[in-house]
Amino acid sequence: MALDEPKDTDNVYDVNGFQFVVDKDFYEKAKPVMVDFLGYGFKISSSIEFGPANSACGSCGSSSGGCG
């Protein structure tokens, strides 16, 4: 999520005083897209499934290993 100005290739959605700009092609791949405000930031969910995150530092703070 980033600040951006709408382009011809975008859909624009006004929701509760917030304007969301989403590329039309991306939206077709990701729909449905949900944006929730959690009080400390936003949570974005969509139908896109991402693989596991880079686990090079996945055990930070655990007793089996850590970072740095």
Q: In a few lines, what is going on in this structure?
A:
The chain is mainly beta. The protein has one helix and four strands.
Task: Report how far the terminal alpha carbons are from each other.
Answer: 29 Å
* Spans of at least 5 consecutive residues with low confidence: none
Major beta sheet, specifics? 2 strands, antiparallel
Approximate strand percentage? 25-35%
Structural classification: mainly beta
Number of strands: 4
**Molecular shape:** globular
What is the gyration radius calculated from CA atoms? 17 Å
Overall pLDDT confidence? 82
What is the N-to-C order of secondary-structure elements (H for helix, E for strand)? Answer: EEHEE
Helicity range of the residues? 10-25%
- Total number of helical segments? 1
Strand order of the largest sheet: 1-2
Structure characterization notes:
The protein has one helix spanning 24-30, and strands spanning 10-15, 18-23, 34-37, 42-45. 10% of the residues lie in helices and 29% in strands. With 68 residues, the protein is mainly beta. The protein has a domain at 7-31. 0% of the residues are buried. A two-stranded antiparallel ribbon has the order 1-2. The chain has a two-stranded antiparallel sheet with strand order 3-4. The two termini are 29 Å apart. It is built from one helix and four strands; from the N terminus they run E-E-H-E-E.
